[in-house]
Amino acid sequence: MQQLTTVCFLTVYLCHVSGFTQTPLLNTKSVAKTTTECKAESNVLDSFVSMINGNDSNNNNKKFLMAQSLVLSLINEEQCYNTVEGAQAFAEACAVDIVYEDCFEPQPIVGRAAVAEHLKFRALARSKNGSAGFRIDKISDGSTACGFAWTWTSNNSLEGLRGTTFVEMNSNNQIQYVREIPEPLYKPGDLIIEVLKAATADATPKPPPDYTSKTPKRANEIAKYLFNDVQGADPEEAMRFFDESIVYRDFNYEDVLNGKAEVKKFIEDFSFPGITFATQRFDDGVKATCFTWEVVLEGAPSAIKGISFYEIDTDTGLITYVRDVPESGIKPPPLGKIARQFRPALGVFQPVAFGSRKGGL
Protein backbone atom coordinates (compact mmCIF):
# COMPACT_ATOMS: atom_id res chain seq x y z
CA MET A 1 0.00 0.00 0.00
CA GLN A 2 3.00 2.26 0.27
CA GLN A 3 2.88 2.84 -3.46
CA LEU A 4 -0.74 3.98 -3.59
CA THR A 5 0.01 7.46 -2.35
CA THR A 6 3.57 8.14 -3.43
CA VAL A 7 2.37 10.03 -6.49
CA CYS A 8 2.07 13.05 -4.23
CA PHE A 9 5.74 13.85 -4.66
CA LEU A 10 5.35 15.23 -8.15
CA THR A 11 4.19 18.39 -6.46
CA VAL A 12 7.61 18.79 -4.86
CA TYR A 13 9.72 18.05 -7.92
CA LEU A 14 7.68 19.61 -10.69
CA CYS A 15 5.81 22.47 -9.02
CA HIS A 16 8.67 24.55 -7.62
CA VAL A 17 7.93 27.61 -9.70
CA SER A 18 9.10 30.98 -8.42
CA GLY A 19 7.80 34.47 -9.05
CA PHE A 20 4.44 34.23 -7.33
CA THR A 21 3.80 36.23 -4.18
CA GLN A 22 2.22 34.26 -1.37
CA THR A 23 -0.82 35.67 0.34
CA PRO A 24 -0.06 37.12 3.77
CA LEU A 25 -0.55 34.86 6.75
CA LEU A 26 -3.76 35.32 8.64
CA ASN A 27 -3.51 36.67 12.13
CA THR A 28 -3.46 33.66 14.45
CA LYS A 29 -3.32 35.58 17.71
CA SER A 30 -6.04 34.55 20.11
CA VAL A 31 -8.66 37.14 20.97
CA ALA A 32 -9.87 37.44 24.56
CA LYS A 33 -13.60 36.81 24.97
CA THR A 34 -15.98 37.95 27.66
CA THR A 35 -18.03 35.32 29.47
CA THR A 36 -21.14 36.44 27.58
CA GLU A 37 -19.38 36.17 24.22
CA CYS A 38 -18.03 32.71 25.00
CA LYS A 39 -21.51 31.51 25.97
CA ALA A 40 -22.92 32.91 22.74
CA GLU A 41 -20.27 31.13 20.68
CA SER A 42 -21.26 27.79 22.21
CA ASN A 43 -24.93 28.12 21.24
CA VAL A 44 -24.62 26.48 17.81
CA LEU A 45 -22.78 23.43 19.11
CA ASP A 46 -24.92 23.10 22.24
CA SER A 47 -28.12 23.31 20.22
CA PHE A 48 -26.83 20.75 17.74
CA VAL A 49 -25.78 18.27 20.43
CA SER A 50 -29.12 18.67 22.17
CA MET A 51 -30.96 18.13 18.90
CA ILE A 52 -29.27 14.84 17.99
CA ASN A 53 -29.17 13.48 21.51
CA GLY A 54 -32.71 14.45 22.41
CA ASN A 55 -33.94 15.16 25.92
CA ASP A 56 -34.49 11.54 26.91
CA SER A 57 -32.39 10.73 29.97
CA ASN A 58 -32.52 7.04 28.99
CA ASN A 59 -30.65 7.74 25.77
CA ASN A 60 -27.46 5.89 26.65
CA ASN A 61 -28.01 2.98 24.28
CA LYS A 62 -28.25 5.18 21.21
CA LYS A 63 -25.17 5.73 19.07
CA PHE A 64 -24.92 8.87 16.98
CA LEU A 65 -22.39 9.63 14.27
CA MET A 66 -21.40 12.85 15.98
CA ALA A 67 -18.64 13.97 13.63
CA GLN A 68 -20.56 13.10 10.46
CA SER A 69 -23.79 14.67 11.71
CA LEU A 70 -22.11 17.89 12.80
CA VAL A 71 -20.25 18.23 9.50
CA LEU A 72 -23.43 17.67 7.48
CA SER A 73 -25.28 20.25 9.56
CA LEU A 74 -22.53 22.88 9.26
CA ILE A 75 -22.16 22.44 5.50
CA ASN A 76 -25.72 21.81 4.31
CA GLU A 77 -27.69 23.90 6.81
CA GLU A 78 -25.26 26.57 8.02
CA GLN A 79 -23.42 26.76 4.65
CA CYS A 80 -20.16 27.19 6.51
CA TYR A 81 -17.96 27.11 3.41
CA ASN A 82 -19.81 29.63 1.27
CA THR A 83 -21.40 32.22 3.60
CA VAL A 84 -20.01 34.52 6.27
CA GLU A 85 -22.70 33.50 8.74
CA GLY A 86 -21.92 29.84 8.13
CA ALA A 87 -18.22 30.43 8.63
CA GLN A 88 -18.97 31.92 12.05
CA ALA A 89 -21.16 28.92 12.88
CA PHE A 90 -18.28 26.60 12.01
CA ALA A 91 -15.94 28.54 14.29
CA GLU A 92 -18.45 28.34 17.15
CA ALA A 93 -18.39 24.54 16.82
CA CYS A 94 -14.59 24.50 17.25
CA ALA A 95 -12.40 24.16 20.30
CA VAL A 96 -10.60 27.32 21.38
CA ASP A 97 -7.26 25.80 20.31
CA ILE A 98 -8.50 24.38 16.98
CA VAL A 99 -5.78 23.61 14.42
CA TYR A 100 -7.02 24.00 10.84
CA GLU A 101 -4.57 22.77 8.22
CA ASP A 102 -5.78 24.34 5.00
CA CYS A 103 -3.02 22.90 2.84
CA PHE A 104 -3.55 25.65 0.25
CA GLU A 105 -2.06 28.07 2.81
CA PRO A 106 1.59 28.34 3.93
CA GLN A 107 0.86 27.67 7.61
CA PRO A 108 -1.93 26.04 9.66
CA ILE A 109 -4.60 28.37 11.06
CA VAL A 110 -4.61 28.12 14.84
CA GLY A 111 -7.36 29.22 17.20
CA ARG A 112 -11.12 29.73 16.91
CA ALA A 113 -10.93 33.43 16.02
CA ALA A 114 -8.34 32.85 13.30
CA VAL A 115 -10.41 30.02 11.79
CA ALA A 116 -13.49 32.27 11.71
CA GLU A 117 -11.45 34.99 9.97
CA HIS A 118 -10.01 32.55 7.45
CA LEU A 119 -13.34 30.96 6.49
CA LYS A 120 -15.13 34.31 6.31
CA PHE A 121 -12.42 35.72 4.04
CA ARG A 122 -12.70 32.74 1.70
CA ALA A 123 -16.51 32.82 1.66
CA LEU A 124 -16.45 36.51 0.70
CA ALA A 125 -13.83 35.91 -2.00
CA ARG A 126 -15.80 33.05 -3.53
CA SER A 127 -19.15 34.89 -3.58
CA LYS A 128 -18.05 38.27 -4.95
CA ASN A 129 -18.68 37.38 -8.61
CA GLY A 130 -21.70 35.12 -8.28
CA SER A 131 -23.34 32.38 -6.28
CA ALA A 132 -20.81 30.05 -4.67
CA GLY A 133 -21.88 26.55 -3.64
CA PHE A 134 -20.25 23.64 -1.86
CA ARG A 135 -21.22 20.02 -2.46
CA ILE A 136 -20.38 16.97 -0.38
CA ASP A 137 -19.73 14.09 -2.79
CA LYS A 138 -18.95 11.39 -0.23
CA ILE A 139 -18.67 11.38 3.57
CA SER A 140 -17.45 8.74 6.00
CA ASP A 141 -19.69 7.52 8.82
CA GLY A 142 -17.40 8.50 11.67
CA SER A 143 -18.33 9.59 15.18
CA THR A 144 -15.04 10.76 16.73
CA ALA A 145 -13.78 11.96 13.34
CA CYS A 146 -14.90 11.85 9.74
CA GLY A 147 -13.80 12.91 6.29
CA PHE A 148 -15.56 14.03 3.16
CA ALA A 149 -14.91 14.47 -0.54
CA TRP A 150 -16.17 17.80 -1.89
CA THR A 151 -16.65 19.98 -4.95
CA TRP A 152 -16.98 23.75 -5.37
CA THR A 153 -20.05 24.68 -7.39
CA SER A 154 -21.71 27.81 -8.76
CA ASN A 155 -25.40 28.54 -9.40
CA ASN A 156 -26.13 24.81 -9.63
CA SER A 157 -24.91 25.01 -13.22
CA LEU A 158 -21.13 24.56 -12.99
CA GLU A 159 -18.71 22.64 -10.81
CA GLY A 160 -15.01 23.14 -10.34
CA LEU A 161 -12.40 22.47 -7.66
CA ARG A 162 -12.47 19.16 -5.81
CA GLY A 163 -10.75 18.05 -2.64
CA THR A 164 -10.95 16.15 0.63
CA THR A 165 -11.27 17.29 4.26
CA PHE A 166 -10.65 15.42 7.51
CA VAL A 167 -12.37 16.62 10.72
CA GLU A 168 -11.58 15.36 14.24
CA MET A 169 -13.57 15.99 17.43
CA ASN A 170 -12.38 16.31 21.02
CA SER A 171 -13.96 14.75 24.12
CA ASN A 172 -16.30 17.75 24.41
CA ASN A 173 -17.68 17.16 20.89
CA GLN A 174 -15.89 20.23 19.57
CA ILE A 175 -13.88 20.28 16.35
CA GLN A 176 -10.24 20.19 17.42
CA TYR A 177 -8.43 19.46 14.15
CA VAL A 178 -9.05 19.84 10.42
CA ARG A 179 -6.93 19.00 7.38
CA GLU A 180 -8.21 20.21 4.02
CA ILE A 181 -6.45 19.59 0.70
CA PRO A 182 -7.69 20.75 -2.72
CA GLU A 183 -6.78 18.86 -5.86
CA PRO A 184 -3.65 20.01 -7.74
CA LEU A 185 -4.61 21.68 -11.02
CA TYR A 186 -1.57 20.28 -12.81
CA LYS A 187 -1.82 16.51 -13.12
CA PRO A 188 1.26 14.98 -14.75
CA GLY A 189 0.27 11.32 -14.82
CA ASP A 190 3.00 8.71 -15.30
CA LEU A 191 5.76 11.31 -15.54
CA ILE A 192 6.00 11.15 -11.77
CA ILE A 193 7.20 7.55 -11.93
CA GLU A 194 10.46 8.59 -13.60
CA VAL A 195 10.83 11.56 -11.23
CA LEU A 196 10.47 9.38 -8.15
CA LYS A 197 12.79 6.69 -9.48
CA ALA A 198 15.45 9.32 -10.12
CA ALA A 199 14.95 10.81 -6.65
CA THR A 200 15.33 7.44 -4.91
CA ALA A 201 17.99 5.92 -7.17
CA ASP A 202 20.51 5.60 -4.32
CA ALA A 203 18.05 4.21 -1.78
CA THR A 204 18.93 0.94 -0.07
CA PRO A 205 16.27 -1.77 -0.42
CA LYS A 206 14.76 -2.95 2.86
CA PRO A 207 13.43 -6.44 3.65
CA PRO A 208 9.62 -6.69 3.64
CA PRO A 209 8.05 -6.45 7.10
CA ASP A 210 6.49 -9.43 8.84
CA TYR A 211 2.73 -9.35 9.32
CA THR A 212 -0.09 -11.58 10.51
CA SER A 213 -2.80 -12.02 7.89
CA LYS A 214 -6.17 -10.62 8.96
CA THR A 215 -9.54 -9.95 7.35
CA PRO A 216 -11.03 -6.84 8.99
CA LYS A 217 -14.50 -5.78 7.88
CA ARG A 218 -14.85 -2.17 9.06
CA ALA A 219 -13.55 0.46 6.64
CA ASN A 220 -11.20 2.16 9.13
CA GLU A 221 -9.81 -1.20 10.28
CA ILE A 222 -9.16 -2.26 6.68
CA ALA A 223 -7.26 0.95 5.99
CA LYS A 224 -5.19 0.56 9.18
CA TYR A 225 -4.36 -3.04 8.29
CA LEU A 226 -3.30 -2.20 4.74
CA PHE A 227 -1.17 0.79 5.64
CA ASN A 228 0.16 -0.07 9.10
CA ASP A 229 0.61 -3.85 8.76
CA VAL A 230 0.83 -4.88 5.11
CA GLN A 231 2.54 -1.83 3.64
CA GLY A 232 5.80 -2.81 1.93
CA ALA A 233 5.12 -6.53 2.36
CA ASP A 234 3.05 -8.65 -0.03
CA PRO A 235 1.15 -6.73 -2.77
CA GLU A 236 -1.17 -9.69 -3.27
CA GLU A 237 -2.28 -9.46 0.36
CA ALA A 238 -3.31 -5.86 -0.25
CA MET A 239 -5.02 -6.63 -3.56
CA ARG A 240 -7.41 -9.15 -2.01
CA PHE A 241 -9.20 -6.22 -0.32
CA PHE A 242 -10.05 -4.47 -3.60
CA ASP A 243 -13.31 -5.09 -5.43
CA GLU A 244 -13.07 -6.12 -9.09
CA SER A 245 -14.89 -2.89 -10.03
CA ILE A 246 -12.79 -0.59 -7.83
CA VAL A 247 -12.75 3.09 -8.84
CA TYR A 248 -9.48 4.71 -7.78
CA ARG A 249 -9.01 8.49 -8.04
CA ASP A 250 -5.48 9.73 -7.53
CA PHE A 251 -5.36 13.48 -8.09
CA ASN A 252 -1.98 13.43 -9.82
CA TYR A 253 -3.78 11.76 -12.74
CA GLU A 254 -6.45 13.24 -15.00
CA ASP A 255 -8.30 9.93 -15.33
CA VAL A 256 -9.45 7.50 -12.68
CA LEU A 257 -8.24 3.93 -12.45
CA ASN A 258 -11.04 1.50 -13.16
CA GLY A 259 -10.92 -2.10 -12.06
CA LYS A 260 -8.62 -4.28 -10.02
CA ALA A 261 -6.17 -4.89 -12.86
CA GLU A 262 -5.45 -1.18 -13.32
CA VAL A 263 -5.00 -0.67 -9.58
CA LYS A 264 -2.62 -3.62 -9.37
CA LYS A 265 -0.47 -2.22 -12.19
CA PHE A 266 -0.52 1.16 -10.46
CA ILE A 267 0.85 -0.43 -7.28
CA GLU A 268 3.50 -2.38 -9.20
CA ASP A 269 4.64 0.75 -11.07
CA PHE A 270 5.44 2.44 -7.76
CA SER A 271 7.18 -0.54 -6.15
CA PHE A 272 10.73 0.66 -5.56
CA PRO A 273 12.77 1.44 -2.43
CA GLY A 274 13.34 4.82 -0.80
CA ILE A 275 9.79 5.81 0.07
CA THR A 276 8.40 5.76 3.59
CA PHE A 277 4.68 6.16 4.14
CA ALA A 278 3.36 7.17 7.59
CA THR A 279 -0.31 7.33 8.54
CA GLN A 280 -1.24 10.01 11.06
CA ARG A 281 -4.95 10.21 11.96
CA PHE A 282 -7.85 7.85 11.23
CA ASP A 283 -11.57 8.32 11.66
CA ASP A 284 -13.76 5.51 13.02
CA GLY A 285 -15.90 4.99 9.92
CA VAL A 286 -17.49 1.61 9.24
CA LYS A 287 -18.77 1.91 5.64
CA ALA A 288 -16.22 4.55 4.59
CA THR A 289 -13.12 5.94 6.20
CA CYS A 290 -10.85 8.96 5.88
CA PHE A 291 -7.30 9.26 7.16
CA THR A 292 -4.31 11.58 6.96
CA TRP A 293 -0.75 10.68 6.08
CA GLU A 294 2.66 11.98 5.12
CA VAL A 295 5.25 10.54 2.77
CA VAL A 296 9.01 10.96 2.96
CA LEU A 297 11.54 10.29 0.22
CA GLU A 298 14.87 8.99 1.47
CA GLY A 299 17.18 12.00 1.66
CA ALA A 300 14.41 14.56 1.10
CA PRO A 301 14.39 17.48 3.57
CA SER A 302 10.64 17.46 4.25
CA ALA A 303 7.52 15.32 4.04
CA ILE A 304 4.39 15.84 1.96
CA LYS A 305 0.99 15.65 3.65
CA GLY A 306 -2.07 14.01 2.17
CA ILE A 307 -5.54 12.61 2.77
CA SER A 308 -7.17 9.38 1.59
CA PHE A 309 -10.84 8.43 1.49
CA TYR A 310 -11.86 4.74 1.25
CA GLU A 311 -15.35 3.34 0.71
CA ILE A 312 -16.24 -0.34 1.02
CA ASP A 313 -19.03 -2.73 0.14
CA THR A 314 -20.17 -3.78 3.62
CA ASP A 315 -21.51 -7.09 2.32
CA THR A 316 -18.17 -8.20 0.89
CA GLY A 317 -15.75 -6.08 2.92
CA LEU A 318 -14.03 -5.03 -0.32
CA ILE A 319 -12.91 -1.53 -1.24
CA THR A 320 -15.02 -0.03 -4.03
CA TYR A 321 -13.76 3.58 -4.10
CA VAL A 322 -10.55 5.44 -3.23
CA ARG A 323 -9.63 9.12 -3.41
CA ASP A 324 -6.03 10.23 -2.71
CA VAL A 325 -5.06 13.90 -2.63
CA PRO A 326 -1.58 15.32 -1.82
CA GLU A 327 -0.70 18.84 -0.75
CA SER A 328 1.28 21.14 -3.01
CA GLY A 329 4.97 21.76 -2.44
CA ILE A 330 4.40 25.50 -2.89
CA LYS A 331 1.74 27.30 -0.89
CA PRO A 332 -0.39 28.72 -2.22
CA PRO A 333 0.05 26.64 -5.40
CA PRO A 334 0.74 29.08 -8.28
CA LEU A 335 -1.88 27.68 -10.68
CA GLY A 336 -4.41 27.28 -7.91
CA LYS A 337 -3.94 30.86 -6.74
CA ILE A 338 -4.44 32.27 -10.24
CA ALA A 339 -7.49 30.07 -10.83
CA ARG A 340 -9.12 31.32 -7.62
CA GLN A 341 -8.55 34.89 -8.77
CA PHE A 342 -9.87 34.14 -12.27
CA ARG A 343 -12.91 32.10 -11.20
CA PRO A 344 -13.27 32.68 -7.44
CA ALA A 345 -16.49 30.69 -7.03
CA LEU A 346 -15.08 27.62 -8.78
CA GLY A 347 -11.30 27.70 -8.25
CA VAL A 348 -10.43 26.19 -11.65
CA PHE A 349 -9.75 27.53 -15.15
CA GLN A 350 -12.19 25.22 -16.95
CA PRO A 351 -15.30 24.23 -14.96
CA VAL A 352 -17.59 21.43 -16.08
CA ALA A 353 -21.35 21.06 -16.20
CA PHE A 354 -23.02 20.58 -12.83
CA GLY A 355 -23.56 16.87 -12.13
CA SER A 356 -21.32 15.70 -14.96
CA ARG A 357 -18.81 14.05 -12.59
CA LYS A 358 -20.67 11.40 -10.60
CA GLY A 359 -19.44 11.33 -7.04
CA GLY A 360 -17.05 14.16 -7.76
CA LEU A 361 -15.04 12.13 -10.25
Written account of the structure:
- It is built from eleven helices and 13 strands.
- The strands form two sheets. Strands 1, 2, 3, 4, 5, 6 and 13 form a seven-stranded mixed sheet that branches. The protein has a six-stranded mixed sheet with strand order 8-7-12-11-10-9, with helices on one face.
- It is of the alpha+beta class and 361 residues long.
- The protein starts with 9 loop residues before the first helix and ends in an 8-residue tail after the last strand.
Shape: globular
State the low-pLDDT regions, or none. Answer: 2-42, 51-63
Number of helices: 11
**SSE pattern:** HHHHHEEHEEEEHHHEEHEEEEHE
The mean pLDDT is: 85
User: Strand tally, please?
Assistant: 13
End-to-end Cα distance, whole Å, is 22 Å
Q: Structural class given helices, strands, pairing?
A: alpha+beta
Fraction in beta strands: 25-35%
The rounded Rg comes to: 21 Å
Helical residue percent band: 25-40%
Largest sheet: 7 strands, mixed
